[in-house]
Protein backbone atom coordinates (compact mmCIF):
# COMPACT_ATOMS: atom_id res chain seq x y z
CA UNK A 1 0.00 0.00 0.00
CA UNK A 2 1.36 3.41 -0.88
CA UNK A 3 2.88 5.73 1.67
CA UNK A 4 1.60 9.11 0.61
CA UNK A 5 3.69 11.40 2.76
CA UNK A 6 5.93 10.93 5.76
CA UNK A 7 3.02 11.40 8.13
CA UNK A 8 0.20 9.88 6.15
CA UNK A 9 -0.64 6.41 4.93
CA UNK A 10 -3.52 4.53 3.43
CA UNK A 11 -5.01 1.25 4.54
CA UNK A 12 -7.66 -0.76 2.71
CA UNK A 13 -10.03 -2.57 5.04
CA UNK A 14 -11.96 -5.54 3.68
CA UNK A 15 -14.42 -6.04 6.55
CA UNK A 16 -15.87 -4.39 9.65
CA UNK A 17 -13.77 -6.79 11.74
CA UNK A 18 -10.61 -5.58 10.02
CA UNK A 19 -11.57 -1.96 10.62
CA UNK A 20 -12.10 -2.79 14.31
CA UNK A 21 -8.68 -4.44 14.47
CA UNK A 22 -7.08 -1.32 13.01
CA UNK A 23 -8.96 0.70 15.63
CA UNK A 24 -7.63 -1.56 18.39
CA UNK A 25 -4.06 -0.85 17.34
CA UNK A 26 -4.75 2.86 17.40
CA UNK A 27 -6.54 2.71 20.75
CA UNK A 28 -3.54 1.05 22.37
CA UNK A 29 -1.38 4.10 21.53
CA UNK A 30 -3.77 6.86 22.59
CA UNK A 31 -3.12 9.17 25.53
CA UNK A 32 -4.75 12.28 26.99
CA UNK A 33 -4.29 15.19 24.59
CA UNK A 34 -4.69 13.07 21.47
CA UNK A 35 -7.51 14.15 19.18
CA UNK A 36 -8.69 11.89 16.34
CA UNK A 37 -10.82 13.59 13.70
CA UNK A 38 -12.96 11.10 11.74
CA UNK A 39 -14.17 12.30 8.37
CA UNK A 40 -16.35 10.25 6.03
CA UNK A 41 -19.87 9.79 4.76
CA UNK A 42 -22.75 7.95 6.43
CA UNK A 43 -21.84 4.28 6.77
CA UNK A 44 -18.18 4.78 5.92
CA UNK A 45 -17.16 3.06 9.17
CA UNK A 46 -16.40 5.82 11.68
CA UNK A 47 -18.30 4.21 14.57
CA UNK A 48 -16.95 0.78 13.62
CA UNK A 49 -13.39 2.14 13.90
CA UNK A 50 -14.23 3.74 17.26
CA UNK A 51 -15.48 0.35 18.52
CA UNK A 52 -12.00 -1.03 17.94
CA UNK A 53 -10.31 2.04 19.41
CA UNK A 54 -12.33 1.70 22.61
CA UNK A 55 -11.40 -1.98 22.81
CA UNK A 56 -7.71 -1.15 22.30
CA UNK A 57 -8.02 1.54 24.96
CA UNK A 58 -9.32 -1.14 27.32
CA UNK A 59 -12.78 0.37 27.70
CA UNK A 60 -15.25 -1.56 29.80
CA UNK A 61 -18.29 0.14 28.26
CA UNK A 62 -19.73 -0.73 24.84
CA UNK A 63 -19.50 1.86 22.07
CA UNK A 64 -22.75 3.42 20.94
CA UNK A 65 -23.42 6.33 18.62
CA UNK A 66 -23.60 9.53 20.66
CA UNK A 67 -26.97 11.05 19.87
CA UNK A 68 -28.71 13.41 22.26
CA UNK A 69 -25.80 13.77 24.63
CA UNK A 70 -23.29 14.36 21.79
CA UNK A 71 -20.32 12.96 23.74
CA UNK A 72 -19.96 9.44 25.13
CA UNK A 73 -17.31 8.48 27.64
CA UNK A 74 -15.81 4.99 27.86
CA UNK A 75 -13.69 4.22 30.91
CA UNK A 76 -11.09 1.55 31.42
CA UNK A 77 -10.54 -0.34 34.65
CA UNK A 78 -8.35 2.35 36.24
CA UNK A 79 -11.02 4.91 35.35
CA UNK A 80 -9.26 6.81 32.56
CA UNK A 81 -11.80 8.18 30.07
CA UNK A 82 -11.92 8.00 26.29
CA UNK A 83 -14.29 10.57 24.76
CA UNK A 84 -16.39 9.93 21.63
CA UNK A 85 -18.22 12.81 20.05
CA UNK A 86 -20.54 12.89 17.06
CA UNK A 87 -20.87 16.30 15.42
CA UNK A 88 -23.56 15.13 12.96
CA UNK A 89 -26.54 16.38 14.95
CA UNK A 90 -24.96 19.56 16.24
CA UNK A 91 -27.25 22.53 15.90
CA UNK A 92 -24.44 25.07 15.82
CA UNK A 93 -20.75 25.53 16.37
CA UNK A 94 -21.66 27.36 19.56
CA UNK A 95 -23.27 24.20 20.91
CA UNK A 96 -19.97 22.37 20.38
CA UNK A 97 -18.01 25.26 21.87
CA UNK A 98 -20.12 24.97 25.04
CA UNK A 99 -18.96 21.38 25.49
CA UNK A 100 -15.47 22.76 26.27
CA UNK A 101 -13.63 20.17 24.22
CA UNK A 102 -10.14 21.19 25.45
CA UNK A 103 -11.23 20.26 28.99
CA UNK A 104 -12.17 16.83 27.65
CA UNK A 105 -9.02 16.08 25.67
CA UNK A 106 -6.90 17.21 28.63
CA UNK A 107 -8.40 14.29 30.55
CA UNK A 108 -8.44 11.65 27.86
CA UNK A 109 -8.22 11.05 24.11
CA UNK A 110 -11.07 12.54 22.07
CA UNK A 111 -12.50 10.95 18.91
CA UNK A 112 -14.84 13.04 16.79
CA UNK A 113 -17.18 11.74 14.07
CA UNK A 114 -18.06 14.31 11.38
CA UNK A 115 -15.05 16.28 12.63
CA UNK A 116 -15.04 18.47 9.51
CA UNK A 117 -18.14 20.18 10.96
CA UNK A 118 -16.22 21.47 13.98
CA UNK A 119 -12.71 21.69 12.56
CA UNK A 120 -12.26 25.20 13.97
CA UNK A 121 -12.71 23.89 17.51
CA UNK A 122 -10.14 21.12 17.19
CA UNK A 123 -6.40 21.47 17.80
CA UNK A 124 -4.13 21.81 14.78
CA UNK A 125 -2.08 18.85 16.07
CA UNK A 126 -4.63 16.13 15.45
CA UNK A 127 -4.83 12.79 13.69
CA UNK A 128 -7.23 12.92 10.77
CA UNK A 129 -8.77 9.71 9.50
CA UNK A 130 -10.62 9.96 6.21
CA UNK A 131 -12.86 6.98 5.48
CA UNK A 132 -14.15 6.24 2.00
CA UNK A 133 -16.68 3.64 0.87
CA UNK A 134 -15.24 1.50 -1.94
CA UNK A 135 -17.83 -1.27 -2.02
CA UNK A 136 -20.12 -3.13 0.39
CA UNK A 137 -17.22 -4.53 2.45
CA UNK A 138 -14.27 -2.38 1.41
CA UNK A 139 -13.28 0.95 2.94
CA UNK A 140 -10.24 3.13 2.30
CA UNK A 141 -8.80 4.57 5.50
CA UNK A 142 -6.40 7.49 5.13
CA UNK A 143 -4.45 8.37 8.27
CA UNK A 144 -2.86 11.78 8.33
CA UNK A 145 -0.96 13.54 11.12
CA UNK A 146 -1.26 17.30 11.33
CA UNK A 147 1.27 18.06 14.05
CA UNK A 148 4.14 16.51 16.03
CA UNK A 149 2.07 14.41 18.44
CA UNK A 150 -0.26 13.15 15.74
CA UNK A 151 2.68 12.46 13.41
CA UNK A 152 4.28 10.24 16.04
CA UNK A 153 0.99 8.40 16.37
CA UNK A 154 0.82 7.87 12.61
CA UNK A 155 4.34 6.45 12.61
CA UNK A 156 3.52 3.97 15.36
CA UNK A 157 0.29 2.90 13.72
CA UNK A 158 1.91 2.54 10.31
CA UNK A 159 4.58 0.36 11.85
CA UNK A 160 1.90 -1.83 13.49
CA UNK A 161 -0.19 -2.16 10.34
CA UNK A 162 2.30 -2.09 7.49
CA UNK A 163 5.52 -2.97 9.27
CA UNK A 164 7.35 0.05 7.86
N1 LIG B 1 -14.55 -2.66 5.82
C1 LIG B 1 -15.53 -2.12 6.58
N2 LIG B 1 -15.20 -1.28 7.59
C2 LIG B 1 -16.15 -0.71 8.35
N3 LIG B 1 -17.48 -0.93 8.21
C3 LIG B 1 -17.86 -1.76 7.23
C4 LIG B 1 -16.91 -2.38 6.37
N4 LIG B 1 -17.59 -3.16 5.48
C5 LIG B 1 -18.88 -3.03 5.77
N5 LIG B 1 -19.08 -2.20 6.82
C6 LIG B 1 -20.39 -1.84 7.37
O1 LIG B 1 -20.60 -0.46 7.12
C7 LIG B 1 -21.31 0.09 8.21
C8 LIG B 1 -20.50 1.20 8.85
O2 LIG B 1 -21.30 1.79 9.81
P1 LIG B 1 -20.76 2.84 10.86
O3 LIG B 1 -21.87 3.07 11.83
O4 LIG B 1 -19.44 2.40 11.39
O5 LIG B 1 -20.55 4.10 9.93
P2 LIG B 1 -20.41 5.64 10.35
O6 LIG B 1 -19.35 6.18 9.48
O7 LIG B 1 -20.21 5.75 11.83
O8 LIG B 1 -21.80 6.25 9.93
P3 LIG B 1 -22.58 7.50 10.54
O9 LIG B 1 -22.11 8.71 9.77
O10 LIG B 1 -24.01 7.20 10.27
O11 LIG B 1 -22.27 7.61 12.00
C9 LIG B 1 -21.60 -1.03 9.20
O12 LIG B 1 -22.87 -1.57 8.91
C10 LIG B 1 -20.50 -2.02 8.87
O13 LIG B 1 -20.85 -3.35 9.19
MG1 LIG C 1 -21.21 6.75 13.31
Describe the fold and architecture.
Helix 1 (16-29) crosses helix 5 (148-162). The longest helix is centred in the last third of the chain and has 15 residues, at 148-162. The chain is an alpha/beta fold and 164 residues long. A hairpin with a 2-residue loop joins strand 1 (3-5) and strand 2. An eight-stranded mixed sheet has the order 1-2-8-7-3-6-5-4. Helix content is 33%, strand content 27%. The structure holds adenosine-5'-triphosphate and magnesium ion.
Low-confidence stretches: none
CATH architecture: 3-Layer(aba) Sandwich
Bound molecules: adenosine-5'-triphosphate, magnesium ion
Output the CATH homologous superfamily.
P-loop containing nucleotide triphosphate hydrolases
Average predicted local confidence, pLDDT: 94
The secondary structure category is: alpha/beta
Q: How big a fraction of the residues is strand?
A: 25-35%
Quaternary organisation: single chain
Strand order of the largest sheet: 1-2-8-7-3-6-5-4
Sheet of most strands: 8 strands, mixed
So what's the overall shape?
globular
> How many distinct beta strands?
8
Key attributes of the depicted protein:
164 residues, alpha/beta, Rossmann fold, eight-stranded mixed β-sheet, 5 helices, 27% strand, globular, binds adenosine-5'-triphosphate, binds magnesium ion
In short:
This protein is an alpha/beta fold.
Helix/strand layout:
Elements: E1 3-5, E2 8-13, H1 16-29, E3 35-40, H2 46-57, E4 71-75, E5 81-86, H3 93-98, H4 101-107, E6 110-113, E7 127-133, E8 139-145, H5 148-162
Parallel strand pairs: 3-6, 3-7, 5-6
Antiparallel strand pairs: 1-2, 2-8, 4-5, 7-8
The structure holds adenosine-5'-triphosphate and magnesium ion.
Magnesium ion binds next to helix 2.
Amino acid sequence: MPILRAHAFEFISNSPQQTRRVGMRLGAHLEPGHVVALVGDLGSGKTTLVQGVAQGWGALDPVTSPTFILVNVYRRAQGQPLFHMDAYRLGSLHEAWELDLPALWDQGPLLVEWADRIADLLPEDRLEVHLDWIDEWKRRLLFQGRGPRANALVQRLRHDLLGS
